[in-house]
Amino acid sequence: MSDLEFIFSMLGEASTIAIMKTKNPIGFVENKKVAKQGGDVAGNARKELEQKTGKKVVSTENYLQLPEKAKRRIK
Fold first, then answer.
1. What gap in Å lies between CA 10 and CA 29, rounded to an integer?
2. What is the count of structural domains for the chain?
3. Domain that holds residue 8
């Protein structure tokens, strides 16, 4: 995982927690909506950075470390 992948992952988690603290969701369905909103924040930020840099954030950095069987499932 690259630094940017890690940062955007953390942004999604932190955004979800911040939204959760303000909306106080109860139950699975409400929490799922909040998680989607937090992920959208990170996803939108990632897409904007990719657009401005012309480079993808998501890498295959750890892909080579996977066993061959797991690689076949991904393809």
1. 22
2. 1
3. 3-74
